[in-house]
Amino acid sequence: MTDALLSYTREQGRRDANLDALKIKEWLSAAANPIAARPKGLAVATASIGEAEPPYIVRHSQWQNWLNLKPHFPSPLWVSGAPGCGKSTLAHKVVEHLTKTQHSSVIVSHAFQSTVSTQHRPLMCLAASILDQLLPRDWETQTQKHVFERLVPSYNQYRLHSNDCPFEDLWDHCASLLKSETRFILVIDALDECIFDRAGQEADFLDRILDLLSTTPGGRIVIFSRPCPVLGVGVTLDLEENEIRISTEDTLPEINAFCDSASAKLPLPKELQLKVANRARADAQGSFLWATLFLQEFTNVLDKAHVMEILDKFPDNCWERYAKTWRDGIRELEPQVQESCRSMLLILLGARSKFSLEDIEDSLDLLPNSAQRISKYCQPLVLVVDGVLQLSHASVRDFLLNDDKKTQTTYISISKSEPDEALARTCLEYLLRKDYAQTDRIGQRLRRNVGLGGSTERLEQNFYNYAARNWYIHLAALSSPGPSLLRLAEEFLHAIQFTYWAEYSYTDAGDFQAIRSTEIALHIWMKNLSDDDRALLHLNDYFERPYKDLSRAYKENSDDKVLQWLALMHLGFYYFDKGKMTEMTQVRQEVAAGLSELLGRCNPLALRARSDAAYTFLFNGDLREAQRLYAEVYDDQRKVLDNDDPSLFFTLIYQGQVEYLMTHSSKALEILTSAAAGFLRTSGPESNGFLITQLWSAVADASVGHTSQAIKMMEYVREKREERYGPDDSFGMATKIFVGDLYRKLEKKEEALANIEPGFEFRRGFWPKSHFLTIDTSLVLATTYRDFGMNHLAEKTVDDLESHGNLEREENYIRLCQARHLRGLLLFDGGHVDQAITVLDALLIQYGHEDSNNRALQWVRLDLAGMLRYRGREGDERLASSLFDGIVTDGGGREPDPPLWLRISEAALRLVRDGKLDAAGELLREEKLRWTREEDLWMRLGMPAADTGWMKPPRGLGVHAPSSGWVVVLPGE
After folding, report:
1. Where is the Nephrocystin 3-like N-terminal domain (predicted)?
2. pTM of this prediction?
3. How many C-beta neighbours within 10 Å does residue 681 have?
């Protein structure tokens, strides 16, 4: 099956290569912002003055030195200047000039941008721009092909939210492509507007730039920015050798020409044009921005008196002009209009994507065409470019978010957290609109998401997509949200509208990953809130309460009686995904009974529900009942479903799991191979169904000795899940733990810990210590630590497990047996032989009787027997042998077992522990015996469940003794 898979994926890869490259290009383009694509903003960016002339900076000696120094310039060239001095226009002209003069084989550019949204401010956007400009729509060289292949994981993980992709994940690909060029010039504009994701990232970025230049002699990098202490540019008294500072003298000729030209185009008499030009030339002080703001004032004047008033009273700097807009304009409007203006500005300050005028109207619930009118009140703080509303200049952001208390009272007071707070509130209020509480509307999405059709008509207004994707991001950006906002979030999390959002997100992301990742993000955020704030927001019934309310609403008021069960079906899946198995059992059994009664047992939807319900028996260890139920469901499905229906193959997965847990590994592999073939034929090797099948095939394969092959199969599964959902995917993390446990059994310490420890940290960071997934991972980790002689860490892990794992609960009694087993082994390893024997003997007395015996206790018997014989006191040998009483029988009910049976029982158990089930069965048949209770040797389901059979024996009893339990590796592995 593995060879067939590899062959299939190679061929599929050839067919899909072009399509993947195109998708990746589109994904990169969404985050890229080359300088030529930067919105022009104010008229200064489109001034025609001197367009035929090369930009003045190319005549600068430092520029000439940077461009022509051989063999290479060891650092980037910094061009710094005050806000509004024309840096972005200059950068644009530089790119045009370098392209025309062909100074380099490749010119790459990027402009950071704070005026439209935060979307083009993260550092990753620079990397996206570089990749977007250097990669063709289809790869042409081996370097390009290699980069496309390595970009697939990032694309799959961040395809819906490109800005969440870390810069570091992309930069190596950028460096690889740039180094492949003989000569390149990289032009970066407005680096001071970049949002760095973490402390120290700016220094790390500059180190990467220096490293790139040191290894690429033909490379040149020029960076334009305002003076910036964080970047260390433009703030020292003395000029650095790699720095050009734009001075008033540098820009004077172009500013004068711009003022003369722009004034001559004003609808004014010649004499007034000259007066305007003279004031502009006299007071611009090197600022194209101020000159533009000043000249714009005259575009709509009606009389000479107004012209003279502007000439006399226009502020001397941009900051005062912005303040005048607020003080004499916005603040004088009607309160409602004033509030709309302020809300519009807050949105532009915090938005994570572009906002059209229609988006503004939709988000603020304004009348049609009113956003255009409101934007005019806010000019020149904002402008509209191609229907998109944006801040007019980066300096507007500085003005609005100014934290100088003296100027705040005069101008406007907006805190740095207020934009996120306003957008979080706007998003939540939008998601809570009554339209999204309509059960018929929610029902359409429910039907569509379970595969029962449903309207494909767009059901949401413009702003819904933004609100659905970003409400929790804006909320989690706040360290101290106000009580009213927390109450609003609490209302949404428990409202019917939440179910519409969940169904919308399910469709958008393809599964529950978006819903669960939101929950995880909220949990992490809440940990840092104050006690008073945490008390206002409750996540303990996240997803659960609104879906129960939705089901109840359908039951009481809907003519479609199926919908109540569809809501509960998704609730059951949520419980399953979160590991709340008791709740899952109850809901799935209720759904199966309800749909079977409503639609008939063989209706496809009822069959799906019956299959879901059977899983509860599988998880709870009632394997015979699970085996029977899955056989019934599969037979019924074959009668009514198409041969390519995925429900058939999922049922086969569950059947395969049952057989594996009942120690029928060969039969399990046969069933799982059929399921894999079905998924491979219908949905391909990257489908979720196929990956689940591969994981359990690998688990079964490892149990018969094909350990190395099993690891390869699991690594394929983990890689594909990580490509699609990232490193924090819960299924991918489970696979990682499976892999680590197999490496443990192969005695590969580094590989084992590298896989298990991150899985443990992930699960402990989200689920409580008493959750079964956390408990199982703790047991796997403790076993691993002990196997590699790290007993102090093993003891610490077991201590924590016994203190906080709630192992006394009925559903955890097998895990309690495993924890006590480990405790006994650690005591014995430490030389506390009597204590170890006492712990394990008490465990068998408490749980070793017939109605609670289990596989884990069989390994306790074997190790306790070894300890007793090691101690060798009077009666220890007899006690060791008696541990195996009642394990086998001839069917006659003889009590107690004769000594021969005791020796055979122990020998057979050792064979089972060594993975030699057939040999154990043959031994019993030779003696005309059988297992008293086969189920005492069955495994329990887990992701993964700890198996204390496969671990090192008590210290001193032989590392590779027959009782060691180390995995058997077949020849050729």
Report:
1. 57-226
2. 0.80
3. 13
